Every structure is written in structure tokens, then in C-alpha cells.
Amino acid sequence: MNRSGQGLYWQAGLAVALLMATAGATAGAPETESELANFVIQDCGSCHGLKLKGGLGPPLRPEDIEALPEAAVAAIIRQGVPGTAMPPWKALLTEQEILWISRQLKSGALIAPESDTF
Ligand code: HEC
Fold first, then answer.
1. Are 54 and 46 in contact (CB under 8 A)?
2. Domains identified in the chain, total number
3. I want to staple 64 with a disulfide (CB 3.0 to 4.6 A). Which of 15, 26, 59, 105 is the partner?
4. Per the domain annotation, does 15 fall within a domain?
């Protein structure tokens, strides 16, 4: 038996269990949504720009993704864009979180408060 291999599996399993517990416990609660909003700004923003106006990745303001239906945005977040820097997020985000982010991107809600100042 490979003990270090088992340890890795155990750690990965624990991380997934913790993620699921966190998501399940607070699903729909405002803290979850502000945490998720933070995640989009920090993590997605590292490539797409803190105001989602683009960087390494293309801009993600509502006018930029007008041609993509919400379901297409969700599919891109879920699967990434193979052969580009856009990674798949399905291992990190729940389906609910992916759909929530897609809706926010389409509505511009995450960037609306500062959209005039940048
Ligand atoms: C490591 C850099 C990187 C990160 C992090 C990243 N993206 Fe991307 N993303 C890209 C690149 C590059 C593309 C362009 C892919 C292509 O050429 O079609 C892209 C494309 C997209 C598109 C399609 C845009 C369009 O107009 O076709 C969406 C939607 C998107 N990303 C959402 C997200 C979301 C939401 C997150 C956070 C969960 C995220 N991305 C994180 C690099 C990144």
C-alpha cells in the first residue's frame, strides 16, 4: 500500500466534503453571495480585470457577453475554454454557484456600483 497516496486522497476528499458542507449550510444566505461576489472579483478578476473590463481574459461586462445566453456563460465557466487560459471551474464551484455567477455577469450586478467611476 502507498501510504502517502492514501493521504492525498483523504485530503482531497476532506476538502471536497468541507466545500460541500459550507455550500450546503449557507446556500442562498447573503454571506454566501457576498463571498461568491468576492471570489468572482478576486479569482475571475485576476484574468478578466477587477472591474471585469478585461486583462489576460476578455472583458465580461454585460455588453461584452451580450451574444452569449446565460446558459452559454454557465457552460464556459463549468468547462473552461480548452486550449486557452480559461480554466474549468466545475471542480471548485457548485452548479448553483456557477448559475449565480452567470446571472450576475449577465446583469452586471457585481460591477454596477462602480461602473461609472472606472
Ligand atoms: C487564468 C486566467 C482566467 C481565469 C482565472 C478566469 N478566466 Fe475566464 N477566460 C480566460 C480567457 C483567456 C478567456 C478567453 C478564452 C477564449 O479565447 O475563448 C476566458 C473566457 C471567459 C468567458 C467567455 C467570454 C467570451 O466573451 O467569450 C467567460 C464567460 C469567462 N471567461 C468567465 C470566467 C469566470 C466567471 C471566471 C471565474 C470563475 C473566470 N472566467 C476565470 C481566462 C481566465
1. no
2. 1
3. 59
4. no
Please report which confidence band the pLDDT of residue 29 belongs to, taking 50, 70 and 90 as the band edges. Answer: very low
Q: How far, in Å, from the CA of 54 to the mean position of ligand 1? A: 9
CATH number at residue 41: 1.10.760.10
Give the model's confidence band at 15: pLDDT under 50 very low, under 70 low, under 90 confident, else very high. low
Check if the beta carbon of residue 93 is closer than 8 Å to that of residue 79.
Answer: no
Report the number of secondary-structure helices (H) and strands (E) in the chain: 5, 0
Is residue 70 in a domain? Answer: yes
pLDDT at position 13 is 60
Q: Report whether residue 98 contacts ligand 1, using a CB cutoff of 6 Å.
A: no
Closest Cα to residue 101, out of 90, 85, 117? Answer: 90
The answer to whether residue 67 is domain-embedded is yes
Q: What is the pLDDT of residue 115?
A: 46
- H or E segment to which residue 3 belongs: helix 3-26
pTM exceeding 0.85:
no
